[in-house]
Write a structure and sequence with these properties.
Blueprint (H helix, E strand, L loop, with lengths): L2 H17 L15 H13 L5 H9 L2 H4 L4 H8 L1 H9 L8 H11 L5 H20 L7 H17 L5 H11 L4
Helix pairs in contact: 1-3, 2-3, 2-8, 3-6, 3-8, 5-6, 7-9, 8-9, 8-10
Length: 177
């Protein structure tokens, strides 16, 4: 990876860490939220062998619009339109009810860009692994199963983007409780 490529990845990770600094995961350990974007980056780079710096930056930033006060305009200013738009396409509209957001992810999956599909696939892999290994303490067995099944519906609608990630998702889905 060239120096400029590495710098954009580091800048994205730093930006994400600052934006998510007070957030915790819902797992029983209350892990720092930044662990999640780092896990996506690892899945994409290490497990799938993809080293595109923009993809890795998007993985680091994928929840910033959705879960922090970050705006599309801010991301465009700091990272340019390509990265900002990909993060935006991965962002749920939190003003909508949860059930509608989940349905929109299923419906929208077929229209997502190839880069967006890669990051979304890595996100679902990490979410299922986390849910299988360290689930939120207040989630019932049925809620866990419903999440697994919803994630599969989203992934089944994605355009084919990376065989390795698709296999990793199937492996993660096999952990369904």
């Amino acid at each position: 990876m060239k120096k400029d490529d590495m710098l954009i990845v580091i800048k994205a990770l730093d930006f994400s860490a600052q934006k998510h600094r007070k957030q915790r995961r819902k797992d029983s350990e209350g892990s720092p939220y930044i662990n999640h974007p780092i896990a996506l980056m690892r899945v994409i780079a290490e497990e799938a062998g993809l080293t595109d710096p923009n993809l890795l930056a998007v993985a680091a930033l994928h929840d910033t619009i959705e879960d922090t006060a970050t705006t599309l305009e801010e991301l465009e200013q700091v990272f340019g339109p390509e990265i900002a738009n990909m993060v935006f396409e991965l962002s749920d509209n939190k003003s909508l009810p949860k059930a509608e957001r989940k349905k929109r992810q299923i419906d929208y999956a077929s229209k997502i860009s190839q880069g967006g599909a890669i990051v979304l696939l890595a996100d679902k892999i990490c979410n299922l692994r986390d849910l299988a290994q360290v689930p939120p303490v207040d989630w019932s067995l049925q809620r866990k199963r419903d999440f697994f099944d919803w994630a599969k519906q989203v992934v089944d609608n994605l355009p084919s983007s990376n065989e390795k990630l698709e296999t990793l998702f199937e492996d993660a889905y096999a952990l369904r409780p």
